[in-house]
Amino acid sequence: MSEKIISNFVDGSFQEGQGRNLFENRNPVDNSLISKVVEASAADVDAAVAAARRALSGPWGDMSVDERATLLHRVADGVMARFDEFLAAECADTGKPFSLARHIDIPRGASNFKVFADLVKNVATEAFQMGTPDGTGAINYAIRKPRGVIGVISPWNLPLLLMTWKVGPALACGNTVIVKPSEETPTTASLLAEVMRDAGIPDGVYNVVNGFGPDSAGAFLTSHRGVDAITFTGETRTGAAIMKAGADRVRPVSFELGGKNPAIVFADCDMDKAIEGTMRSAFANCGQVCLGTERVFVERSIFDQFVERLRDGAKGLKLGVPDDASANMGPLISLEHRDKVLSYYDKARDLGANVITGGGVPDMVPSLQGGAWIEPTIWTGLDDDSAIMREEIFGPCCHVSPFDDEAEVVRRANDTDYGLACSIWTENTSRAHRVAAQMDVGLVWVNSWFLRDLRTPFGGSKMSGIGREGGVHSLEFYTELTNICVKL
């Protein structure tokens, strides 16, 4: 069987790259080789930027909003027509269960194009009539224009979904994009390039450059003077580096960064719903979700019961390969990331945590022992100022702490450098509204988790990000406003 090569996609065609440096893309299930990937050089990124800039003044720039929307609907339909290919690629790159990607990653990845294509057709701007000294008056109105070439740096945990969450609105607004997918998950960005071409998206509108961060495609893209804005999802320290790279041009950035999200469980909760929701928020996608829960605060009167039931739920999780219909958790993204998560498992033990369940590497069958498998883990007994409670781990783990009153838990839940999301479990509606309003986060769920209306704002405060995505908030980032004043 011939070796699979994933190339960069620039100006409507796959290109081998000028440097022809290759890196490996491995399956986290068993560490087997999926493909080799062409690493983009600085010259390759230059070519992608030049193609994206040309496309702005080509047929793409001349299209009406309706014409662009029609093409983006074709892209969404093209993804769904190749659903099984996208599903297999996403699960090979990430190791996640088919059951998860089938219901979330692929359909949401496709729908992002339709949602924003339709939204941009109906977005309103401002218009005001004013008086003038001569009495004739004037009218002021605003128009939205594409911002230009957008650099998209996308993560590995939800590769297609979070990439199109940025590419969809960027293209709907008339921009062109250069995508740098994570080096861990390059395949679906390449598949999407084929769909774009087949759907009739003009050359240069969608480009893909593969590689790493420092001294590679990521750095070349974020520091390039031909890129008009950068949108990034990933680690906070990487966001800070990107911000520095673009500071000399004072260009706009949109960041969705890390989190140390709390769940607050009151004694009057529906226990079944709270357990089910916390199970999902702590362990879904092997804990590799920016919105996931790593800190759980439970009212003392139900603490022991909650911990016992959460432990039973975690012990009942089945680890397995993506096409195992009975499996509900896959491996971590890589052996390197597993080493990081395991270092926190070791640190928790060193700090004296009570290991309720997990805390190590599971015993897998021989064919899977090379994979990045890890046990779902629950701790109790640590102080709020411990590393386990303050640093993002990004694995299938959580610490459960008791609390005594509402004021205490609000203070403790907010005592973090991050501010992305929070879930509150209570049957008291007044309390739910009151506590939600006090949380220093961008998104609060009450009696739910990961329930999203794509028209609403999404993003974090503090070190969890800059700006908001979703609905008109995405359009604000991907467009420039021009005020036009007409003297009557």
Walk me through the structure.
- Belongs to the aldehyde dehydrogenase family.
- Residues 16-483 form the Aldehyde dehydrogenase domain.
- It comes from Sphingobium phenoxybenzoativorans.
- The active site is at residue 256.
- This protein has 488 residues and is of the alpha/beta class.
- The protein has two domains: 5-257 and 464-487, Aldehyde Dehydrogenase, Chain A, domain 1; 261-453, Aldehyde Dehydrogenase, Chain A, domain 2 (3-Layer(aba) Sandwich), CATH 3.40.309.
- The chain contains 16 helices and 23 strands.
- A seven-stranded mixed sheet has the order 15-16-17-14-13-19-20, with helices on both faces.
- A hairpin with a 6-residue loop joins strand 4 (21-26) and strand 5 (33-39).
- Helix 3 packs across helix 7 (187-199).
- The longest helix has 24 residues, at 98-121.
- The model has no long low-confidence stretch (mean pLDDT 97).
Topology diagram in text:
Layout lengths: L4 E2 L1 E3 L2 E3 L5 E6 L6 E7 L2 H15 L2 H4 L2 H17 L1 H12 L3 H24 L5 E4 L7 E9 L2 E5 L5 H14 L3 E5 L6 H13 L6 E3 L8 H6 L6 E5 L2 H10 L7 E4 L4 E5 L5 H13 L9 E7 L3 H13 L19 H16 L3 E4 L19 E4 L6 H4 L6 E7 L2 H9 L3 E2 L1 E5 L3 H10 L4 E4 L14 E2 L2 E2 L4 H8 E9 L1
Helix pairs in contact: 3-5, 3-7, 4-5, 5-6, 10-11
